[in-house]
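The protein record reproduced below.
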Amino acid sequence: MALRLRALADALLVPVANLTGLPPEAVQGFVEGTTTGAVAAGKAPKSRKVSAYSKAYSKAFKRVAPDYRKKNGQWKQNGFKAAVRAAHKMAGKK
């Protein structure tokens, strides 16, 4: 299968090389380089800037969460929802 794909790619690249006047190896290297670059760019991790409020909320949630948990670590009845509200209140959400 790989051999067939390689033959197909070579058949497509030879006319392009003839039209441009470049050696087939150069055209092949260019095509392989651009596809490799495109794949690497597609896999690049997307980063985001963490807001000051997000940091404040995270710290506040960690501070209040134990108050809404049982001794065994499970959430109390509506504990998570209450902890979220308390953390937003502490972080200063309007």
Q: What stands out?
A: The mean pLDDT is 82. The first helix runs from residue 2 to 20. Helices lie at 2-20, 24-43, 52-64, 79-91.
